[in-house]
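Students often ask why inverse folding is considered easier than folding. One informal answer: many sequences map to the same fold, so there is more than one right answer. In these notes we will look at a single instance of the problem. The structure comes first.
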């Protein structure tokens, strides 16, 4: 069989165009992310795979793979809402992706007093739930209280706190202009904006996108995704296409 002399060149062009389209979609529209840690339990579990919309807050250099210096500042900016679950580049290296819940907007004051979260001198309402679940901190199962919290804008979500309330009191965090303050829903097992040297306040240019829904989830503690005979146990079918609250 004789191949057309343009066979290889045409296929290379097709692959090139496909790559460009994939980069455009990933940079401007939607990008998949994998959850590797337990800092956002019970909202997000290790093994969740989710889609993040890149257009939700506009675009910066961090919207593109490897953060090339294509944009000097954020363009088409839309302010995130309190309670959004957001992917951002950690300020420590401007490279590592973190996912946390937005609690503090520019100018807000945040403080923990007796393990209760205060926002602008008002305590964030939380009510203990009766549901029980296994919550992880790394590889350990931890003993927690589970709450439903309600932010001033009406946003509700679930958080967990260690029963001994390890993080009890803090200084007042005052969010600078153009910055945001994030917390993990697994409050005693999360490196977030409370830790100023490693995460701290996040500049708006570091926002990557808004987490929207889970498209696949598997429990790697039960079995590898390649072990198809364990799929009935390892794949969390009940989380497929769950909207992220």
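Output (designed amino acids):
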């Amino acid at each position: 069989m004789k191949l057309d002399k343009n066979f290889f060149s045409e296929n290379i062009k097709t692959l090139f165009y496909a790559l460009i389209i994939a980069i455009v979609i990933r940079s401007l529209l939607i990008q998949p992310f994998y959850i590797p840690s337990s800092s956002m339990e019970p909202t997000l579990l290790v093994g969740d795979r989710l889609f993040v919309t890149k257009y939700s807050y506009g675009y910066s250099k961090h919207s593109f793979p490897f953060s090339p210096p294509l944009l000097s500042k954020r363009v088409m900016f839309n302010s995130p809402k309190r309670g959004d679950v957001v992917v951002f580049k950690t300020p420590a290296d401007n490279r590592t992706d973190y996912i946390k819940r937005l609690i503090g907007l520019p100018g807000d004051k945040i403080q923990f007093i007796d393990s209760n979260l205060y926002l602008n001198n008002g305590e964030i309402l939380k009510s203990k739930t009766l549901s029980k679940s296994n919550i992880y901190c790394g590889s350990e199962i931890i003993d927690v209280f589970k709450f439903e919290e309600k932010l001033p804008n009406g946003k509700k979500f679930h958080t967990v706190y260690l029963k001994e309330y390890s993080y009890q009191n803090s200084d007042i965090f005052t969010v600078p202009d153009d910055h945001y303050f994030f917390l993990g829903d697994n409050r005693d097992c999360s490196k977030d904006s409370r830790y100023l040297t490693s995460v701290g306040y996040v500049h708006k240019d570091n926002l990557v996108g808004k987490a929207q829904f889970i498209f696949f989830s598997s429990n790697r503690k039960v079995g590898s995704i390649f072990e198809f005979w364990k799929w009935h146990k390892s794949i969390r079918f009940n989380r497929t296409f769950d909207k992220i609250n």
